[in-house]
Amino acid sequence: MGSEPIWVPSNTRHTGIHTFRLYVNRTYSLNLQTYDDLHKWSVMNIPDFAEALFVFAGIHASTPYLRPADGVDTMYPPPRWFPGARLNYTENILKPGLGLRPNGIAVTVCDEDPSTSVDITFLELERQTALWATALRNMGVGVGDRVATVLPNKLDCLLVLLAAGSIGAIFSSTSPDMGATGIIERYKQVRPKVLVCDTVVTYAGKKIDLRKRLFEANKKLSELVPELQHTLVANGPIFEGQNVKSANSVLAATRATSPRYEQLPFDHPIYILYTSGTTGTPKCITHAAGRALLQQKKELILTGDVKPNSTYYQYTTTGWMMWNWVVAVLSVGGRIILYDGSPLHPTPSAQIELIKKQDVTHWGTSPKFLAALRRSGLPKDMDLPSLCHVGSAGSPLSAELHRWFADTFPAGVGLTSGSGGTDLVGGIVSGSPITNIYPGEISVPNLGMKVEIWDSSGRNIEDSGEKGDLVITKPFFSMPIGFWGENGKAKYRAAYFEQYPGVWYHGDFIRKIPGTNGYEILGRSDGVLNPGGVRFGSAEIYGILDKFEELQDFLCVAQKLPPTFQDEQVLLFIMMAAGKRLDDSLLSRIKQEISRSLSLRHVPGGIHEVHGIPYTVNGKRIENLVRDIVAGKSVGEARTAINPECLKEYENFRLGAAEAAQSKL
User: Fold this and answer.
1) Is 377 exposed, middle or buried (0-12, 13-18, 19+ CB in 10 A)?
2) Is the pLDDT of residue 363 over 50?
3) b/e 621-652 (16+ beta carbons within 10 angstroms → b)
4) For labelling alongside 349, which of 1, 135, 245, 478 has CA 20 to 30 A away?
5) So what family is this one in (predicted)?
6) Mean predicted confidence (pLDDT) in 134-143
7) What is the Cα–Cα distance from 662 to 636, expressed in whole angstroms?
8) How far apart are the first and last CA of the chain?
């Protein structure tokens, strides 16, 4: 962390949050001056904040609300927001753009071929959404029914979401890189009436045929979910199955009709997202249309300063909550870029060329991609005149990587880091367009989020500089309405409200930094490293290793030690950059730097070279599976890993594995 800011805001009077502050001051006869003032007011006056945001963000309701909320005095059960209001998610997504610039570009679809892109206007998006909605209605889809997809980040997935939302159906998506077992585990729980998929996708320059896995998934789901009557193939050859047909043939036979938007309660469900499923069957997190929309518009307008003339490119798959989140850019009249393919093909710098070509103003990326970009090299021309804001999500951003960005990208472009999750389809802590950014820090708690840091006894330690659990102590808009399926209520309560009764436990290990009041995410609470009683997060180690150009990637986990298995050692696994070796000199430098930056007790007990680091499809290191493997546990099929084959190597580092191998010689 650094005492000098890495970015200082300018032109704050032109930001959405400045205008919102003035609106709040006028409406409630206040004199709020700073972000801190506004944040304190937002968490101490939740109904007023909710109402102010509802009006300021332009939520369209056909029937007015009776009051902003019921039940905001407790977090569980969650409050009921805007009782009496009736609205439609899709209508709210499309209405601002249709009103401001109906013939303006709403969506640009891109892929790995930089010479090809397709633009869709707001009017065309409305027309195609209405056609899909009519087709779904003709297949018997109505309010509350589920519509599922296995689609890449192209137009079809967006159209199915918007069509389902216009009907009042509940949408759910998974990325095509999910295996058959992962697809089945998710959709057997939510029981869709319609499944839409692509059978051929392109990734890293290669065409991948998905027919075998989709045939397997559809066959099993048809047995388990008799209501799944229609499986549509949007792109690619169809596969065998009684319920399988071409989406194009269905749409061609559908008579075009005017848009029709079911008017539904604010808390009516819009989509179901999933926990990672790395340690068991994924839980089905159900989000309400009004709640998600209000949360996301808050973050886009007030945190990201997104405007109707903004172009937002977020690299994401359709299986990550950032896909659902970025769709809401349309609800402020902005344009979104849908990119399908590998961000590393042919090189990471191709993403910079895409930003230039598409005049991107807001870019959403990740520390993993920024590290790959730094290793591979940047284009000679780094003039990015349109780019205003870059947001990093998915994992903690190190100070080292943050400084590299500031030294490399155009002056004035701020890189903000944030943390949130699928659980709330939004953020908890993030940056702000009117607040300084410090290297490796997350600047502020989001408006409306009463963030605290608690120790294991439930004591608030946020101002001490100590590390603890991230909790939220007051209700917020996008709390899920529940977990779908059997025992959903009990699972929901256990996931968030049992660790600290009545308080949202998010599972992040965090500290607040004295002096700057920024935040540092140190890892997941269930992955805290504790050798010899020294508690720290894996991100503290990763931030140091980012300094070593010889390292391509790394992962560290705890390994319990005999005889009592109460103490543990830290194992650090390193993947070397091309042409580099993990020799004694490099090992010594790594240990010395960890000892110097943290302490001698933070130095891992074992440092090992491996050929692969396991990641989820959303670009997150899978620490928990490696931790279980080195503990000698069986982890079964790694359903959410994008590279499960690399896990086999970690079995060599189980306790006693080396001795066992030696005894066989």
Assistant:
1) exposed
2) yes
3) bbbbbbbbbbbeeebeebbbbbebebbebbee
4) 1
5) Belongs to the ATP-dependent AMP-binding enzyme family.
6) 98
7) 26
8) 49
The sign of the torsion formed by the CA atoms of 660, 662, 663, 665 equals positive
What confidence category does residue 639 fall into, taking pLDDT thresholds of 50, 70 and 90?
confident
pLDDT digits (tens, 9 = 90+) for 378-433: 998 999 999 999 999 988 999 999 999 999 999 999 999 999 999 999 999 999 99
Residue 217 in tokens = 């998934």
Token pair belonging to 249: 């043939």
CB 416 within 8 Å of CB 366: no
Q: Is 510 exposed, middle or buried (0-12, 13-18, 19+ CB in 10 A)?
A: buried
Q: Which domains does the chain have, with CATH numbers?
A: 123-269 (3.40.50.980), 528-663 (3.30.300.30)
Cβ atoms within 10 A of the Cβ of 612, count? 17
> Residues 402, 439: contact at Cβ < 8 Å?
yes
Cα 448 vs. chain centroid, distance in angstroms? 19
CA distance 125 to 18: 32
Q: pLDDT confidence of 333, banded at 50, 70, 90?
A: very high
Pull the structure tokens for residue 460: 């608030």
Largest CA distance in the chain: 81
How far apart (Å, rounded) are the C-alpha atoms in residues 274 and 423? 8
Q: Which residues lie across from 207 on neighbouring strands?
A: 202
Q: Which two tokens stand for residue 128?
A: 């195609």
Q: Is the CB of residue 305 less than 8 Å from the CB of residue 389?
A: yes
Cα separation, 281 vs 522, in Å, equals 26
Q: DSSP state, 180?
A: H
pLDDT in tens, 258-285: 999 999 999 999 999 998 766 568 999 9
Distance CA 118, CA 100 (A): 21
- At residue 43, the pLDDT reads 98
Structural tokens at position 349 = 């710098």
Q: How confident is the model at residue 662 (pLDDT cuts 50, 70, 90)?
A: very low
Length of the chain: 665
Which residue type does 665 have? L
- Tokens representing residue 511 in the block: 């500290």
* Start-end of H helices in 484-523: 488-496
The answer for residues whose C-beta is within 8 angstroms of residue 73's C-beta and 6 or more apart is none
pLDDT band at 664 (very low <50, low <70, confident <90, very high): very low
Q: What value does the mean pLDDT of the chain take?
A: 94
Between CA 299 and CA 305 the distance in angstroms is 8
Among residues 618, 616, 606, 604, the alpha carbon closest in space to that of 646 is found at: 616
CA–centroid distance for 150 within its chain = 18
Radius of gyration from C-alpha coordinates of the chain = 24
Contact 25, 39 (CB under 8 A): no
CA distance 156 to 235: 9
Q: What is the DSSP letter of 549?
A: T
What CA–CA distance (Å, rounded) separates 79 from 72?
Answer: 5
